[in-house]
């Protein structure tokens, strides 16, 4: 069973809650903005800084996180239900899926190739992807979901053609 256990303090200390389904507003359960560590079993979870899956998304794949990057800032949790087994995204050099394209199926650092800071649109065929502004998973990031078609990064993602690294979320182990 997929689950996330969240703790109010680092190193899995203090009050905790376990969830097996989406939580649109942790404040309603008296656990909003107090998560400092967590454990994930199964599929990845996305923690959002605002209720109703708004604000900055943070992905947590299966494993233990004795501290989280933004403690005391999560207000919603969403389980990733999508098939993550065979990811694929197509990147385009220009807006509206024009210009040179590149099909990506695994974690890729674009800093060493033609497409570094040149991607302006994308189509996600399969999987859930994390897109990063800087090489090495650095800078501002966003999520790209299956079936998503982003026609122009500048107004839609505020990336302004600055995509340098991307990776698919890893599926959790089957239970």
Automatic annotation (TrEMBL):
This is EDSP protein. Residues 2-42, 43-81, 87-126 form the Beta/gamma crystallin 'Greek key' domain. GO terms for molecular function: structural constituent of eye lens. Gene3D superfamilies: Crystallins. The keyword Repeat applies. Belongs to the beta/gamma-crystallin family. The keyword Repeat applies.
